[in-house]
Specification:
The structure is a single chain. A five-stranded mixed sheet has the order 1-2-10-7-3. A hairpin with a 2-residue loop joins strand 8 and strand 9. It has 19 helices and 14 strands. It is of the alpha+beta class and 476 residues long. The structure holds protoporphyrin IX containing FE.
Amino acid sequence: MSAVPKLPATLPEAPTRGPLQLAAMLWRMRGDPLMSLVDEVRDEPVGQARLPGFPMHTIHRPAHVEQVLLTNHENYVKGPDYDLFGTALGQGLLTSRGELWRRQRQLVQPLFAKRHVAAFAPAMTGATERLLGEWDALPGERPRVDVAHAMGGLALDVVGRALFGAELTREVSDTVATSMSAILAELGGAGRSSLFWAAQTLPGVTVERALRLRPRRQRRFRGDVAALDAVVEELVARRRAPAGGAAATLAGEPDLLALLLGARDEATGQPMDARQVRDEVVTFLLAGYETTASALTWMWWLLAQAPAARERLHAEVDAVLGGRPAGFDDAERLPWTSAVVKEALRLYPPVWVLLRRAVEDDAIGGYRIPAGTTVFSILYLTHRDPETWPDPERFDPERFLPGRDAERPRCAFLPFSIGRRSCVGRAFALTETTVLAATIAQRYALDADPARPPVPDGTLTLRTRGGLPMTLRRRG
Ligand code: HEM
């Protein structure tokens, strides 16, 4: 255990809610988990709700989040709260725990090294060119598109190409897209269902059993997971077969699947078994798709509200790229574009809350955190902490221009989390969002529909509810 001062014998309890307040809170959370939780706890640094069978504490101050994710991280582990994801992801990196996670993280981390991320840049530009081609073909001066849908398709195309390289045909990627969005919709639906959560407070009721309370949906969900599995199995089998050639590559570089299949355990020299490869592939698809899509969607909307920031973006991409698509090396030459992406990640972090189970009693902000409680680190509020971020609600990419990081506490900006269980795809995602944003901004300006402001929907990731219609304007 890390060096944490011995706890005083008695510690005050964090403010809690009576049964009526609790019922009202749960009712509100049904419709909109993010905003109802945020409004509920914004003014209390540490809060708690004693749900039967599911005690929870909420925190958001940067110093408190640092304690959970860094200074006393051994006391805060991923618990059964992640089992819902596990029903689709199995034991991939996002959901696994203990020794299995440690071994897999060691195997997977090198696959996201800078040199590999550089090799994935053609996947990023290739997918963007495909989307821009589709937009170019739309009729009318100012075509309207659902930007959330378009960014979802784009992000999935990128991660699919990075994973499977040359083998990802349009047909295969369409199957992946259809089953993946159905899986996410079902996980989101279960996450919002009070019946699903209430059932799990009963002894012996696992996530799997609670999901069966929604039998029709559950059958469809199983069907979608099976469809995705069939595609993944087929792609992996083809790659393993000698005739398929383990060398199917992306621009001469190994893709993520080739790297996964080639990874060997340092101690045993063993490759991953087939089930583990499947779980990691599906994890990459899920972890790398909605997050990136949501970041880009919010970014286009924020830019449409801030004409000066958007003009500066257009000026930067025109000057640096001069009409060609952005590549890996350009990310560093585009400081404003990169600052725009980060400011969007600050205001609308796709992963807006992190859940950790306390192993032993601890104290946060002077309050008792009992063993067994689930600590919700609400990053949405951390990123709007008024003591760290002047005028926190304002979209201001200047905050992220080079050299400004030093002014902030270490855990004030955590879109990729921090510490051992931080995002393994961080470098990939930062390069990807910058390359995609720059390449699109060269060709299009996106205008918002004032009658349809986005409604945040924070069930799994922080999406826009019901999509986000915007108008495309072709640039000179
Ligand atoms: C803007 C895009 C992204 C954001 C904001 C993001 C954010 C995060 C966050 C906050 C976590 C920690 C989750 C937790 O503790 O519950 C995480 C974990 C993870 N992310 Fe990302 N992510 C992004 C893109 C990607 C991409 C592109 C990939 C892979 C292709 C990826 C793969 C993963 C994996 C495998 C984990 C689990 C790591 C572990 O527990 O060891 N992510 N991500």
